[in-house]
Amino acid sequence: MRLVTTPTQLWRASLCELAVAWGDGHDSLHPVRSSRLACNCAGCVHEFTRAPLLDRANVPADVRPTRIESVGRYGIRIVWIDGHDVGIMTFRDLRALCPCDECSLDSAGKGAVAD
Ligand SMILES: [Zn+2]
Ligand SMILES: [Zn+2]
């Protein structure tokens, strides 16, 4: 699997927003809570069945990262204020979460399942 999209820059735009400048020229602004809800670690998604284990109601509305670390060349690890720090978000996943119209239309066109 070849990674086609990597960020050139990633920074915290505000307490609750994560900004990413992508190598292909795209910029995205992510509400950080959506990244937390998309966590696919073994504690949030069942390892074998992929069933969601995370209770969204337990994720505070103002959840935010205390630290963001890069993981190799393929992703980031976010340390959350609620102590959750085991999930690795790949750049691919991060890009898929881009909430802008362009990307939403893009994934709709590919038949992605809407939440
Ligand atoms: Zn998790
Ligand atoms: Zn986008």
User: How many β-strand runs?
Assistant: 6
Order of helices and strands: EEEHEEEHH
Radius of gyration: 14 Å
CATH class identity: Alpha Beta
- Total count of domains: 1
User: Percent helix among the residues?
Assistant: 10-25%
The CATH topology annotation reads as NE0471 N-terminal domain-like
CA-to-CA gap between the ends? Answer: 26 Å
How does this model look, in words?
The chain is an alpha+beta fold and 115 residues long. It has a single domain (2-110), classed as NE0471 N-terminal domain-like (2-Layer Sandwich), CATH 3.30.2020. 18% of the residues lie in helices and 30% in strands. The chain contains 3 helices and 6 strands; from the N terminus they run βββαβββαα. Strands 1-2-3 form a 3-stranded antiparallel sheet. It is globular and about 35 Å long. 14% of the residues are buried. The model has no long low-confidence stretch (mean pLDDT 87). The structure holds zinc ion (ZN) (2 copies). The site of one zinc ion (ZN) has 6 residues, from helix 3.
